[in-house]
User: Which sequence fits this backbone?
């Protein structure tokens, strides 16, 4: 009886996974959209402030290394 319950549960999980009803399955298009929007935000900040960011990073590294 115990093995029957285990087999039923395993088949049910496999069927749900094949159908795509698995709640643990991620939302790939959503993650792609988040990644693209993050890249766009980085570019939107980097393009107008590139020289200021490079100067700040260069000064910070120079102060740490003692150059």
Assistant:
């Amino acid at each position: 009886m115990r093995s029957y319950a285990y087999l039923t549960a395993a088949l049910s999980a496999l069927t749900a996974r094949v159908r795509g009803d698995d709640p643990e399955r991620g939302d790939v298009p959503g993650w792609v959209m988040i990644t693209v929007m993050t890249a766009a935000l980085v570019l939107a900040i980097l393009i107008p402030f590139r020289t200021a960011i490079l100067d700040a990073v260069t000064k910070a590294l120079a102060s740490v290394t003692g150059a």
In short: The mean pLDDT is 83. Helices lie at 2-19, 28-46, 50-65. Residues 28-46 form the longest helix (19 residues).
